[in-house]
Each structure stands twice: as C-alpha cells, then as structure tokens.
Amino acid sequence: MVEDFASLKGTLAEEEKKILDEIYEKKTIEIKERLQEEIRRDNEHLALVNLCYNLFTKTTEINRITGYKIVLADPLCTLGARNFDLMLYNEGNQNAILIEAKSSVSERGMGNMIDETIHAANEVISNKEKLENILGSKMNKIEFVILSFAYYVNSLKQIVGSKNAPICLWAYHVVPGLIQMVKTGEDIASEKVAGRTHEDEDMRQILLKGIPTRMGSLRSLPIMPTSHMFTKLEYIAQQLFILLDRKPQNERWFGYSEVYNLCKQAFSATELDDSQVEEETKKIIGSAIDDGLFRKISEDEEISQTEFDISYIRRDYEKFLKDYLERRAKEKAFSAAIEEFGQKKGLKKLNEF
Amino acid sequence: MRISEHEHTFQSFINELVTTGIEPNEHLRIVCYITHHGDWNADSPGIPSLSSLLTSNDVETKDLGDIKKLVAHYRDTLTDRLIGVTFFAFLHRDSRLLMCFTNGAKFEVEQTLDKIVERNPGLYYAFIMPSTLTKIETMLFDMHPSTFIRYFSATRGPQSSLRSEIRPEYKRTIEYHGNDGKQVLEELKYAYGVTPRSIHFEIPDYAIYQVHNIGHLTIVKGEENAKRFLMEIVDFAMKDTLLTRKIVESADFQLIPIETQTKVLLFPKLKPWLIKFSIPIDIREGENLIKVLEDNGFDIFNHILAEGSLRLNGMITDRLKKIIFTVDANTERMVIAPIREISFDSFLRFYQTVLENFDPEATCEVFE
After folding, report:
1. Could you tell me the pTM of the whole model?
2. Is the Cβ of A235 closer than 8 Å to some Cβ of chain B?
3. How many CB pairs under 8 A join A and B?
4. Which of A209, B71, B122, B334 fits B60 for a cystine, CB–CB 3.0-4.6 Å?
C-alpha cells in the first residue's frame, strides 16, 4: 500500500499532493484513536469476563450454593467462533450456561448484537453434540446470557423482549458491586420457556437477589485466545521481562519454547490443543516481530530455533504502545487516505487515477 | 562489637552483647528483615536459601551456634577500598524474622544487606507502619513519662491522600532537631500532611533510641537494662509487622483441574488480600495511585481506569522483586492477588509503597 500511495502521489499536482497528505495525516490520527479505543474496550471486556469468572470458579460460595461452575473459557474457540466467553455447567441438573460479556455497545448496535447472539445460540444448539464431546458430559439444557453494565442492560431488555430472544440478561452494577439478573417478564413459567430466566431455582433466586462481586475483576484469566493482539503482546512482554531479569546477564534471550509455555499457561482454561497453542504462539511471535517488540538475535529459518530479545529497554517500554499505534495506523491510513481522496475526486478505485 | 566466637544460644548471645559486647560509647543497631524461609539452608523454586543468597552476594558467613556472623562488604567511594561490615544474625524459625545486630552506621547497612534485600526474592525489610510507629511512641511515653522526641524525619509524597493544610501538592521531607519534637511532629502532620519515617526518642538518664520505619532499631546511649529494653521495643514493633506478613501470606493461587474428554483444563483460582483506604478515592486519586506505583518500580498494564464510581483493575509487574500480580480497586478498597507465583515480599513492598506515598492510614486485611 505504501507503494500505491507513493505512485499515486507521483501523478498528482503540488496542490493535490498537499490535499492527499492532509487526508493521510487526518486518517492516521483517526485510526490511532480508534485502535486505542479498541484496546481499551478489549481490557474492559477482559475485566468483565474476569468479574464473572471469579464468582463461579469451583469451590466459591456461589458454586457451592448453585452447583454451577466454570468449565470452559472461550468455549467456542475450537469450533472457530468468537461468541461467548465462559461456559458454566451444573453436574446435578446437567444444564449449561454460556455467557457473553459485553463491555460496551452502542444504542444503534444493540439490535444487531442481539441478532448475532441469537444466531450464535442457534449454532451452539446445533453443535450441542460437539460441545458434549468436549465436555465429556451430557447437556440437558443450554441457557444463554449477556452480561453487561447495568446502564446498557436497561436498553437491552426492551430489544430482547421485542425480538423474543432466548437470552438472560445479567446486569453489573458497579455500585455497590453486584451482578443481578434482570426480569424481562413477570410469568416465570413462560420466561423459562422463552429462555429468559434460568431453569434452576437456586440460580434464579440468587441472581435475582444479586451476587456481590467482591473479588472484582482480578485477572484470573490474564488473556484469552480472542483477546486483542496488543493485550496479548503486553502480557507476554511483561512475563518475558521477568523471565529475562532472572537469567544471568549473558543469557538474556528467549526462544519459541518460552513464549509457547507462557501461552500454554495463559490458555490453560480453554480447549485449545497443543497444535492450536502452537499456532497462537506463532501468531504472537509474528506480530511481535512485525510490531518491533521482539528482535531476532540469531537468524534461523525455523521460528522455533530463533533466539530473541525485547527491542525496548525496560524504562522506555511505554514507547511500545506509541510505536504500535503509529505503525498500525500508518499501514491502514495509506489505503484509507487513497479512498477518501478518490471519493473527493469522484473516483472509486485506485486504478481510475 | 566484641562477641566471643564460640557456639551461642540466642540468650547467651544477648547476655554477652548487652554486658560486654558493646563499648559504652558504641551504638547497637538491630536491623530486622522478614524472610520466606525459617531455616538458613531451606530453599524453594524461585527463592534461594538465605545462605546461598548471602554467599552469592559476597557476604562471608560463620556459624556460631544459633547465631551466624556475617561480614558484608561495600566499596568506599572516596578511597575506593572495600570495607567490611559485621553483623551477628539470628533467624527465628517460627516467625521467620531475621535480626541482624551491628554497630555499623545506617548507610553501611544500606550499602550492604539492604541492597541485597531490595532486589532479591524471599526477604524484605521488616517495615514498621506509621500506625505502629505511633504505638511505639505511646508505649515509650506511657512507660517513661519523661521521654521526649529529640529528632524526627517525616515525608509527604505529592500523591498522598493525607490532609495537608499548606500546599498539599508539594513533595516534602522535613527533618527536625529539637526537644519539643513530639509537639512539632503533631503540628507538622496537621499543617504539612507528613508521615514520620524515623524518630529518635530520649529517656533522660536512661537511653536514646532511634526507630526507623524500614526496620532499623538502634540504641545510641544506655546501660545494660536500656539495651535489654531495646529488645522489647523490637518485639513490640515486630508484632504488627509479622501480622501484616501473615495477612499478605493469606493470599493464594491454585490451579483447579477439570477433566474434559480431550484434556485436563486448569482453572486459576485466586485468593486475594486487601488494602482498605482510609478515605474514599476517586478517579484523580486513582491516577495518582498509578503514578505512585510507577514511580516505585511497579508497572501497571492491561488495566482499566474508569471514572464514575472508580474502577481500577489490571496486572502489575514488580520490577524489583521480579514478579507479576493482579489488582482490583474501587473507591474503598483494593484487592491484590498472586498470579501463579506467590511473593510475600513483593506484597509488603506494595503495601509499604501505598502507605508511604498514597494513604498512610490505609489498613490491610485478610480477604474472607
């Protein structure tokens, strides 16, 4: 795209070059802000997932009372889907609950989001057997939950009702720190049939009363397979800093296996198998090289044989976010600038210049 | 210090120390640390034994029964000569409190043992909290009403949430010499929002004691009884410090296995400890807290800082103790939990950082 941009610029008059450059600068800033927002949202999402995870880990009070416990994180990742963040299962009634955490959603996007969740829920039901195979247990009923901040849930309630969506809504009240299920109708029997309240009496009662989130969003799951690449890079880099700090001065490098082990640890609550963790590791290393985070200190065709160190020294590490945004934004800004310039000129495609 | 080099019990060592061990014009400094291991030679993954840690930092050691003689070295910047500082160390097995007795100067301790403690896992200063310092003061004034404070040093970080009448935004250190130290300290606490770090107490015709909050307790003048009383002050001060250690050690990390058809999944289960703020904090103070942590070698990452009712959560790397943990703060409290590795020393350093720079009256508690 850099070449396209340069060759386009070469064909333009001085005045137009100036316009294109201005568009490019504007686009770079816009994309940078968008990326920063994406990263912030990803962390918000991770915080919300962990908020819920911390309540339902095996042997917590809620697990003891309701029998539900977390059995999978990112439950559909091996089925190639990104929907749903956590899966709860109750061995007693053999019911499962799939939870999707939504840290932010625009008023306009709510309808689409509910449609997508309905679609994903249908997919899950048609793949029920696969999930049962993964879990190694039968599932009687699968219930679906959207967990979000209380102020979004109030608006979602109307849409879930109007679309007759089989979704239970859990609202997170930041004050006083509580997850509470929202009633979408008064008749429990019909709500159960519609999939908008929980079948299990204990679970329903405890959620209607509200569960205090005393552990907050402590990051039991520091990253997930579906996390933003920057979130993953940040976590892996900080772990590697520690690992390198503990090594003797003349051995401060790391290889593929160290990154692989960190990924394997981080994804231990997911169904990713070794080869999928390997794939994930390669993606992270590839991105870390492209984004200038890892520096190769030995050249080898095989990534697994290559030795790396971190390009940033500890006290300059904050620069990584700045550089990351800069690099990523620039890449995207070239094509966005060409497109906008074309639109201004009444052209649609690059080859029309 | 003159201590005979034969086998000692702790009691025989103390007896010799307070009777013939110190010249009348010499001071006696007790430097306290808390350790992970209750045994000199015990080690565990990631935490070397105390013996090997000292050896690898060029400290010479010699066993004298329950006591270990240590000679640590530092390089004098003026003469470029290597100077040895002698300590007689006792490690209490149950409380895992390491007491090092020396007549070395404060800066010599800082140049030797403190340096090792700062950057290695498994041990930390027996930090004396501001509230404990106040308790020591009360105890001394109750027992010896003629006591006065002849010196103190007190500080305030610009991010401190402690009320300050005058220019609260300034970072300040105040050192005061004068026999009305007790009154002046109270006045300065109110006016300048400072917290004491070191206090020198004088009990007329008895002793002068210096208590420094990083666990250094010293007698600079006093007879045998006054020297023995220093041990009581140490006991009194360490009670709170050991309780704090117990609280941060209640934190835990477990991996709970759940077997599926294809693999054994491992689910992290965290048990945090908590810091309760003395006053509710808002977004601006949340930003201050992040600044304080970053200035003290804690990097916060993958975090959220949201306004409204404050939400601050994410991961923290302790650059000095080389460990990662996770925190979640709201307006009233912060919960802190280990991620895989558990490090009481990093948690103590974290708590100390919060007390000294952010909220001197914050308390710590077990998470029930």
Report:
1. 0.92
2. yes
3. 128
4. B71
